[in-house]
Design goal:
This protein has nine helices and five strands, in the order βαβαβαβαβααααα. The protein is α/β, with parallel strands linked by helices. The protein has a single domain, classed as Rossmann fold. The chain has a five-stranded parallel β-sheet, sandwiched between helices. Strand 2, helix 2 and strand 3 form a beta-alpha-beta unit. It is globular. The relative contact order is 0.16.
């Protein structure tokens, strides 16, 4: 077994999608910041590889299967466009998860399969509490050695990202996301059963309902009905 202190970490980057979106499966600004943070960590050799596990996430405006395989696949493709000379091993793609807990669970499976000794997770600030809780639950005692960082903290070291971070922070979509997180965290904090409750309600119908709530919170117009 490789000593974790001698091995560069493998980092999971959680996925985000603009809900609702008029462009099918459009990654939102949060996912773009995730890709930029991944590029910085890879380019500066702070990690050995990045993982994208976000899958095909249904929504009211995106009811058809994503021909690209899901949000994780789109994020990986964007990173490859940004860094075309990356070795294949630098991007690990397993786009099957349809929730935050699903991403963390898939990351644990990958870590066990590939015997990764050093891990980290990158999210966004408004999502950190729930991500940290999922890491604690799935990894148990090992979670103490798994840092959970925000893309804002990673990118804020470089002035060129300041305007992008500020734009996200003040956007309606981010403000709506933060409101929704407070509701979800209220459930997730319930001792013993909080995570299971999230899994229970994490169905396609509930996700579609969540897009309607998100639209109300963010003040976005109602999606036009499809013809045909």
């Amino acid at each position: 077994m490789i000593n974790p202190e001698q091995e560069l970490p493998v980092a999971l980057f959680t996925s985000y999608i603009e809900l609702p979106s008029r462009v099918p499966y459009k990654p939102d600004e949060s996912s773009r910041l995730q890709v930029l943070a991944a590029a910085e960590l890879l380019g500066r050799k702070r990690v050995q590889a990045v993982v994208f596990a976000g899958g095909d996430i249904p929504s009211e405006s995106n009811p058809e299967p994503d021909v690209y395989g899901g949000l994780g696949s789109r994020m990986a493709a964007q990173l490859r466009r940004d860094m075309p000379n990356l070795p294949e091993s630098a991007i690990v793609l397993r786009p099957v998860a349809r929730s935050t807990r699903g991403e963390i669970a898939e990351f644990k499976k990958l870590a066990q399969e590939r015997e990764w000794a050093n891990l980290m997770v990158v999210s966004k600030k408004s999502h950190l509490e729930r991500v940290q809780r999922a890491v604690n639950r799935f990894f148990g005692r090992r979670s103490r050695a798994i840092p959970v960082k925000s893309n804002e903290d990673i990118l804020s070291k470089y002035p060129r990202y300041a305007s992008i971070i500020d734009k996200l922070k003040t956007s309606r979509g981010e403000q709506a996301f933060a409101k929704r997180e407070r509701l979800i965290n209220a459930i997730d904090r319930i001792p013993l059963i909080g995570g299971a409750l999230l899994d229970l309600i994490n169905t396609d119908d509930v996700k579609i309902l969540a897009t309607r709530v998100h639209r109300i919170l963010s003040g976005k117009p109602k999606e036009p009905k499809r013809k045909g």
